[in-house]
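[audit] Reproducing an earlier prediction to check determinism. Same input, same settings, fresh worker. If the tokens differ from the archived copy the diff job will pick it up downstream; this log only records the rerun itself.
[audit] input (237 residues):
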Amino acid sequence: MIIYPAVDIKDGRCVRLVQGEFNKVTVYSDNPVEMGLKWEQMGAEYVHVVDLDGARTGHAQNTPVISEMAVKLGIPVQLGGGIRTIEAIETLLCKGIHRVILGTSAVKNPELVKQALKTFEGSVVIGIDAKDGMVAIEGWAKTSEFTAVGFAKKMEQLGAKTIIYTDISRDGMLEGPNLKAMEEMVKAVNIEIIASGGVSNLEDIRNLKDVGVSGAIVGKALYTGSLDLKEAIEAAK
């Protein structure tokens, strides 16, 4: 299981939100590149980056700093937030981003997903953010009519190889992941599931590993110091 340290970017700075709410923001660094390098030096194999401004506006907003991160880090970067067109995907991949995440656009524009998965294959990951089991969109501001599991099956049929599954109610709360929901998702599809939301300690990492996810995104716990990245990586192995 791979541990993905999260670097969430708002106004060019590294921040954390609580349950995706923009008025509940904590700034952890003015330099996201340095933060990415720190996680790499501690043994991270991959970094998970979110353009929060992009997620809210529907257009990439922090591309210069994210591109710099992709160039300076010796490990791959996956990016989500406001990626809504084939052109945007192509631009980001050309700038050195290893994988892009389609979230809202996957719900609103299945043709885009179909085309993106066909054109870029493993470089496109589907992000499913769930609120009470339903898929949320537009920076978590709205809920769609899809269940998370039903939507995952649909994405699998279109050719998705990896899904990042976030339980919004757990995000930034340090209350532990929704293991039941994660296990249900792992059993429902035959593709990689990366768990996101609520990871706060080593026990959470071990529990997720037992559930069968292929990766876990860890954010606030690393920034507050309640979880040590090196120990998390060791537990994940």
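[audit] rerun output stored. Observation attached for the diff report: The CA atoms of residues 62 and 199 lie 26 Å apart.
[audit] end
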